[in-house]
Amino acid sequence: MIRRTTVLLTFVACLVSAPAVIAGDADPDAAIKYRKSVMSAVGGHIGGLVAILKGEVEQPDSLATHADGFAVAATYGVTSAAFEQNTEGLGSEKTTATGKIWQDWDRFDEALKAMEVAAREIQAAAANGELTSFDQLKPALKECGFCHRESGFREK
Predict the structure, then answer these.
(1) Which residues face 97 on adjacent strands?
(2) Using CA of residue 29, residue 31, residue 34, residue 35, what is the dihedral sign?
(3) Residues 32-71 pLDDT 10s
(4) What ranges in 21-137 are assigned the alpha helix state H?
(5) What is the 3 state secondary structure string of 93-115?
(6) pTM for the predicted model, two decimal places
(7) Are residues 143 and 111 in contact, defined by beta-carbon separation less than 8 angstroms?
(8) Element (H, E) at 139
């Protein structure tokens, strides 16, 4: 009983402290690593969807799982919180995020919201068995490309 209580209290303490860590009180290197993990999940799932829908791999049974994973990873609350802490010029962890993110936060924030909308549309299409074409990924890929190439939010 004591062990279960200890585990429960530890879990609750982590839940209570996690927002402070994500919201800006974290060591810059930890914040950068967290942000990279979040965006790796987004990229991993969209990459899986691309490979399947382009016919590069035969994994049709994984399509809905990748669509779900992409939608969860691209959830605005997760991606926005991952970038909330301005780490420009801080820490030693390598990052391709540029200071323009925090200088033009409103535009960056809009892009994160648009990415979630596109991800949810892909998720819905996959759940209905209607995700059958690479072209259906283009709205999401456009949102990814905005931050990665067009906006200057990410170093090349």
Answers:
(1) 154
(2) negative
(3) 999 999 999 999 999 999 999 999 999 999 999 999 999 9
(4) 28-53, 63-73, 76-84, 100-103, 105-127
(5) CCCCECCHHHHCHHHHHHHHHHH
(6) 0.80
(7) yes
(8) helix 138-145
